[in-house]
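sry for the spam today, last one i promise. C-alpha cells for design, 57 residues
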C-alpha cells in the first residue's frame, strides 16, 4: 500500500478543476464560454456514467 499521492488523487483533482472551470465559465462568460461550460461539465458526468455501468468483477 505504498502509492504516491498523485496516483490516488490525480483523477479526482483533475475532475474537480474541470468542474470548477466549467461553473466559472458558465457564470462569467457569454457566447463560446457557455459551450465550454457545457463540455467541461459533461466530462465528469460521462466518467461517472462509465464507471457506474461497467460490469462488476
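last one done:
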Amino acid at each position: 500500500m505504498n502509492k504516491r499521492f498523485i496516483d490516488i488523487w490525480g483523477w479526482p483533482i483533475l475532475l474537480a478543476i474541470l468542474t470548477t472551470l466549467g461553473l466559472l465559465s458558465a457564470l462569467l462568460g457569454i457566447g463560446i464560454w457557455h459551450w465550454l461550460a457545457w463540455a467541461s461539465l459533461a466530462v465528469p458526468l460521462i466518467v461517472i456514467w462509465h464507471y457506474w455501468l461497467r460490469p462488476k468483477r
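The mean pLDDT is 91. ok im logging off now
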